[in-house]
Specification:
Length: about 350
Amino acid sequence: MTTSTFSKTDEYGFKRPDDFDYVEYEKFMSAYLNLLTRRSMDWVSLLIYNPQLKRNAKLKKFVRTGIPLILRGPGWISVSGVQKLKDKYGSNTYRKMLDEPINEDIKNIILVDIPRTYPDNIYFQPNSENQKTLFRILCAFAACNPDVGYCQGLNYIAGLLLLITKNEESCFWLLRVLVENILPDYYSKTMEGVIVDIEVFSRLVKKKCPEVSKHMINLEMPWALVVTKWFICLFSEVLPIETTLRVWDCLFYEGSKILFRVGLMLVKHYKKDLLACEDIASLAECFKSIVQRPFPLNCHIFIKQMFTEIGSLPMSLINDLRKQVSAERNANKSTSKNKKD
């Protein structure tokens, strides 16, 4: 029997599942480790000429090929626009927010969600320092965003940010960038941004993969059953960890359109599997299984094909679709209200 050289816990502290495919993972890592080495050397060269990581075509290409782990925290800070937020609100905002009171109901919900955050991660064990830090971050975030307060899903995002940055203040600012700039209205009380983007995704699937779109309609399966978790958690707790981090590299640099690319890539690559499903139950199970198969595990190939095989997906198209969906939703609400009146 072959013995794996990999431990039961990955480098980020996540315990591997009992059915983890060590053979497939070793095949992937044997090639990926060489790529990581070359990429790190490329980034060192890049930083000599662009130490502030100013946005340009070369940096965009480098981000798409992955930010090295040792540079990921400061890299996300640099490319995401955190400094603009700090300039606007003051760099000492986090410390101020720690002293601000928040609604007791929100505080209690956060307390309930803390133990649920990555329970299989060795760095988030009960009463660990990371759990206490995560609680402070989410409370400070709620204090400075009273309209949002706290929304389930933010704990997973903040938790992963903390694992990577290892700095609670950096985590706080990156969380703000995501919620306030990159994903507006995703985490509002109505979750209007997510609801709209799920319908946008549905229309993009109809455009890019019409057979799958028709199949979903025929089986009467709403996209919300699949896509809500994808978008709310930004694919954390969905894709393999290294793939999630590569997605986040691009998300911080290019914005929310990356979420659509990831979803479309999964749908397109596994089109045959999805079309073979004959009912909602098997289709739901298929969506659940495809995210942990070898293709998403090989993060480098996955990200590369995500940009080469989906075709053009400009932000202008997504914004136009968002406006259309929002207008239709408002018209429907108005019609419903008039009927009631």
